[in-house]
Structure formats: structure tokens, C-alpha cells
């Protein structure tokens, strides 16, 4: 009965590879997000999807692309991985749309990505 | 620019009270969140303040002063399980969530 789930939990890969992280929410929420938490623990929003439309794109490199097959899923594809991409990536969801993000966001367990 | 300031780390004793402060300078204000994040886990919601004053929820209380750009999270009767990072986040005028770096709270017996 996990609310927001992510796979994989750990991802170790070589520089230059392409990888994907999957996220699913069973809360019936309208909006899903991807965050990157770096070693300094700052949570930086990367993308937000509302009803399968990209609402926010915080000028992340175009090597990162979100894909939403349906309202319950928001996957993150990363091409040509770089050392600086090593971080924890959190998926989250909320009921309201992204222009009203005061609604509580529920986070997935995180994916720890290490690029060697 | 937008800025959220919190102490990096605090230490407190089991059973005591601790106050974690957060000051912010943002383009507009539409509310402030506190989240708890245990090491290696996802952030979980603690509180939301949009009006001035104190909101109490069991052992945890959150205070907001919009005129001062200031909030605090008060934890009473500290337990070892309260050892975690506490993240302050502000909703700005564009309804974007601006996150602080978090305060790591260490509880000692």
C-alpha cells in the first residue's frame, strides 16, 4: 500500500551511460515532481507534471527528460550520465496542480544514483 | 534572490525542548512548510503555516511571523527517534516551493 514508490532504490553506473528511474503514486494525485538532493542536502525541483503536461522545468540539462505515460507515473530518463549527476533523486506527488504547490507533497523513498 | 536560512546542525538532550529557527527572503509568501527527513529516507510532512501564530500538533509546534520572515519548529519531550534533519520550505508568489538546506538535529541520551 505504498503511496509513492520509486525504482531502483540504488543505481551505480558508469559515466556516459543512459539510465531511467521509475516513479508511481497510488494516491490519485494530479501532480508529480522530481527533485534532486545533492551532498549538501538542498532539495532542488527538477520537473513537475500535472495531468500529463509539463508545468515546471527548472532549467535542468536536457540530458534529463521526464516521461509520464499516465497520471500515476512520472519516470526520469537521464542520458550521457556525468559525475555531477551523483545525488539522491526523489519523486513526489500532491493533490493540487503545480501552481498551488502549498498542498502537501508526499515523497517517494528516493533513488541513490552514483556515477563512476 | 530567494533565500532560506536554517542552522546547519543542533544538539539536544533526550526529554528536553529544542527550537529550530528558519528565516526567509522570498519573492512573495504563500505559506511555509516543515518537513522531517531521517537519514537515508524521504522527507515527511510535519506542518504548514500560512497565518501568523503558533500551530500545535502533539509534541511538535510551528510558529510563523510573516512581518519578520521568520518561523520556528519547537520539539518538546525529545525522543531519540527525533534525530533527523528538519527542512523549512516556503511557497513563493509563483507558488514555487523554495527549500532550505535543513537542520540536522542530534539527540543525546
Overview features:
heterodimer; A: 116 residues; mainly beta; 7-stranded mixed beta sheet; 4-stranded antiparallel beta sheet; B: 109 residues; 6-stranded mixed beta sheet; 5-stranded antiparallel beta sheet; 11 strands
Explain what you see.
The complex is a heterodimer of chains A (116) and B (109). Chain A has strands at 4-7, 10-13, 19-25, 31-37, 43-50, 53-57, 64-70, 73-78, 87-94, 106-107, 111-115. Chain A is mainly β and 116 residues long. The model of chain A has no long low-confidence stretch (mean pLDDT 87). With 109 residues, chain B is mainly β. Chain B contains no helices and eleven strands. In chain B, strands 2, 4, 5, 9, 10 and 11 form a six-stranded mixed beta sheet that branches. In chain B, strands 1-3-8-7-6 form a five-stranded antiparallel beta sheet, with no helix packed on it. In chain B, a hairpin with a 5-residue loop joins β9 and β10.
Percentage of helical residues of chain B?
A: under 10%
Terminal CA distance of chain B reads: 40 Å
Averaged pLDDT of chain B: 93
| Estimated structural class of chain A | mainly beta
Task: Quickly count the helices of chain A.
Answer: 0
Give Rg of chain B in angstroms.
13 Å
Q: Could you tell me which chain pair has the largest interface and how many residues each side has?
A: A-B, 21 and 22 residues
Largest beta-sheet characterization of chain B: 6 strands, mixed
Quaternary structure type: heterodimer
* Principal-axis shape of chain B: globular
The helix/strand order of chain A is EEEEEEEEEEE
User: How many beta-strand segments of chain A?
Assistant: 11
Helix content of chain A: under 10%
Amino acid at each position: 500500500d505504498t503511496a509513492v514508490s520509486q525504482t531502483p532504490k540504488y543505481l551505480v553506473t558508469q559515466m556516459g551511460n543512459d539510465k531511467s528511474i521509475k516513479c508511481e503514486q497510488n494516491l490519485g494525485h494530479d501532480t508529480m515532481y522530481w527533485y534532486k538532493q545533492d551532498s549538501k542536502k538542498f532539495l532542488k525541483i527538477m520537473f513537475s507534471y500535472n495531468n500529463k503536461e509539463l508545468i515546471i522545468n527548472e532549467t535542468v540539462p536536457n540530458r534529463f527528460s521526464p516521461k509520464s505515460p499516465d497520471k500515476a507515473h512520472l519516470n526520469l530518463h537521464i542520458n550521457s550520465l556525468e559525475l555531477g549527476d551523483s545525488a539522491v533523486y526523489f519523486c513526489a506527488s500532491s493533490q493540487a496542480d503545480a501552481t498551488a504547490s502549498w498542498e502537501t507533497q508526499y515523497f517517494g523513498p528516493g533513488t541513490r544514483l552514483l556515477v563512476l | 534572490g530567494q533565500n532560506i536560512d536554517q542552522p546547519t546542525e543542533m544538539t539536544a538532550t533526550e526529554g528536553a525542548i529544542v527550537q529550530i529557527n528558519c528565516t526567509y527572503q522570498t519573492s512573495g509568501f504563500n505559506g511555509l512548510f516543515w518537513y522531517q527527513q531521517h537519514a537515508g529516507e524521504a522527507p515527511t510532512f510535519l506542518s504548514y503555516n500560512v497565518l501568523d501564530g503558533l500551530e500545535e500538533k502533539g509534541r511538535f509546534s510551528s510558529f510563523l511571523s510573516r512581518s519578520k520572515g521568520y518561523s520556528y519548529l519547537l520539539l518538546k519531550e525529545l525522543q531519540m527517534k527525533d534525530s533527523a534533519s528538519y527542512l523549512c520550505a516556503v511557497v513563493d508568489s509563483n507558488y514555487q516551493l523554495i527549500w532550505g538546506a535543513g537542520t540536522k538535529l542530534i539527540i543525546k541520551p
